[in-house]
Amino acid sequence: MTKRIKSNPLHRRRFLKRGVIATAGLALEAVPVQSKSFKASQKVAGYIERDHPESQMCLQCHAFIPPTDCTHVEGPVSPWGWCNYYED
Length: 88
Fold this sequence. Notes:
Layout: H1 12-30, H2 42-45, E1 64-65, E2 69-70
Antiparallel strand pairs: 1-2
């Protein structure tokens, strides 16, 4: 004679407990985390400000945010400038 193994059914109490835990987890994910963004100084980044277009310039970089901001370098940057963090 074979012995039947009982499956562990999901009881009401366990179901509610898991639901509460899942809801709490989702609520924690929804809270925005304020992270400090690191921006290098223009001197550390090797930033060069130019007054004319060149082959590599901030305007073509992925980190450039028009009109004069950058995700990697502090302060206003010229669209024609260049730094060591230049990305194609």
